[in-house]
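In response to the reviewer comment on reproducibility (Comment 2.3), we provide here a single inverse folding case reported in full, input and output, so that an independent group could reproduce the run without further information from us. The structure tokens appear first.
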């Protein structure tokens, strides 16, 4: 009987996503993932489809997706866990997809910063903040009346 209880607990954890919640971050809303149907379900001769993330359930480690089955055939799936080998259904990241592209972009930005700035400290201040400060300084200088100076010599009268 304990074996049945352990199996049911494992299945419930897989379906709720509790086992996967701590592994990897969930894909952001609007990103692409791959969705695999349950068991031996097939639609149009396939069991794997493109999907778009519509909501994250961070507490459960699941996502809601809109699955694109065909050009005019969509379905919405709620609280989908990450695909595991045991369950064989769920979502998985797209190879070379959004998360890989974002990670590559961040690596490129870091490398470019190292080449451009070398060992200089990274400035956290926005260039716009610097420009606003500069404009305020110029406005303050323009608002001051010119300082009066004493003349050292006077003009001679022509005559």
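Designed residues, in position order:
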């Amino acid at each position: 009987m304990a074996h049945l209880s352990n199996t049911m607990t494992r299945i419930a954890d897989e379906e709720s996503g509790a086992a996967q919640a701590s592994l990897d971050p969930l894909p952001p809303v609007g990103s692409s993932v791959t969705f695999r149907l349950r068991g031996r379900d097939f639609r149009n001769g396939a069991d794997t489809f493109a999907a778009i993330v519509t909501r994250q359930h961070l507490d459960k480690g699941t996502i809601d997706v809109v699955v694109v089955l065909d050009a005019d055939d969509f379905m919405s799936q709620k609280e989908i866990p990450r695909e595991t080998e045991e369950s064989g259904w769920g979502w998985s990241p797209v190879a070379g997809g959004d998360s890989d592209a974002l990670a590559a972009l961040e690596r490129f930005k870091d490398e470019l910063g190292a080449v451009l700035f070398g060992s200089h400290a990274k400035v956290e201040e926005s260039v716009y903040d610097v420009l606003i400060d500069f404009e305020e300084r110029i406005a303050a200088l323009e608002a001051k009346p010119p300082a009066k100076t004493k003349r050292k010599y006077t003009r001679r009268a022509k005559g």
